[in-house]
Amino acid sequence: MTRTVNLPGGAALPLIGFGTWELQPKTTYESVRAALEIGYRHIDTATLYRNEADVGRAVKDDGVDRDQVFITTKLRPKDARHARRTLESSLRLLDTGYVDLWLIHWPTGEEEFVSTWQELLSARDAGLVRNVGVSNYSPAQIDRLTEATGEQPAVNQIPWSPGQHDPDLLEEHRRRGVVVEGYSGLKNTDLRDPVLTEIAQRHGATPAQIVLRWHLEHDIVILPRSSRREHIAANFDLDGFGLTKEDVTAIDTLARTG
User: Fold this and answer.
1) CA 104: distance to chain centroid?
2) Can you tell me the mean pLDDT for 80-92?
3) Which residues contact 118 (CB under 8 A, 6 or more apart)?
4) Distance, CA of 189 to CA of 67 (rounded, Å)
5) Is 40 helix (H, G, I), strand (E, B) or coil?
6) Region of 185 on the Ramachandran plot (φ > 0 left; ψ -120 to 50 alpha; else beta)
7) Going by DSSP bridges, is the β-strand pair 70-75/99-104 parallel, antiparallel, or unpaired?
8) Those residues with Cβ within 8 angstroms of residue 110's Cβ, 6 or more apart along the chain or in another chain
9) What kind and span of H or E run contains 144?
10) Nearest to 88 by CA among 127, 43, 144
11) What's the pLDDT at 169?
12) Is residue 98 among the annotated active site residues?
């Protein structure tokens, strides 16, 4: 069963996504095919990654129904002044008809700060994208967009890992009804940390699986990336064990002890 979190518009966003940052075209195609075969139903790409066409081809060749796969892409700030054109290019490359989530990849300059967000809202209203959000924004920056337009981002995709765990920042997003997607959770973690290895051993899991499951315990969407099928499978196989409250607290406190 795919675990999901509901976005404000009613869409179900799968908590486990497959990331494609730094994957080369051929690798992207093969890895996304593998991820879909394993059961992933959420794929994350971006204009910056230059692999949208390979993501789209993998989805099409897999044969899974379009409405069963949640696809995210992202707008580079340098493309802000021709946002719609960039989206249309992404849609051509993906060949998926629409995008489930379109994010501003990181904050734009001051001049385009609000107008870029208005462009995303306009694309959503035109039916080109289903949901819109941001990445690498602070709560204060999110508030500026909301105050200017009356509509807040559905999602903020930000770096998140045990070492960066910030309960207050998480609560700031919750209070606003903004879903947190965490990226680089494994990359930014020392998987040899004794706290993680002990918990992993006890649950018959790998330290990487423990870190990913910890994100899910906090309802943080994860986007693990790998080009190796066995890792793609292991990163998705997070239901065979559960973390105790004590486990979660011990991992939370790595941020203060690391």
Assistant:
1) 13
2) 96
3) 149
4) 34
5) coil
6) alpha
7) parallel
8) none
9) helix 139-149
10) 127
11) 98
12) no
Cβ proximity of 227 and 30 under 8 Å: yes
Q: Where are the beta strands (DSSP E) in 77-178?
A: 99-104, 129-135, 155-159
Any bridge partners for residue 19, and if so which?
44
pTM: 0.95
If you ran DSSP here, which 8-state letter would residue 213 be given? H
CA 196 to CA 205: how far, in whole Å?
A: 10
For the cut 60, the answer to whether the pLDDT of residue 258 exceeds it is no
Which is the catalytic residue, given 29, 40, 49, 183? 49
Q: Is the pLDDT of residue 257 over 80?
A: no
Interval 161-218: pLDDT, tens? 999 999 999 999 999 999 999 999 999 999 999 999 999 999 999 999 999 999 999 9
Under a CB-based contact definition with an 8 Å cutoff, are residues 177 and 201 in contact? no
Query: 103 in the Ramachandran plot: left (φ > 0), alpha (ψ -120 to 50) or beta?
Result: beta
| pLDDT at 71 > cutoff 90 | yes
How far from 211 is each of 4, 21, 46, 233, CA to CA, in Å? 18, 19, 24, 15
206 in Cβ contact with 234 (< 8 Å): yes
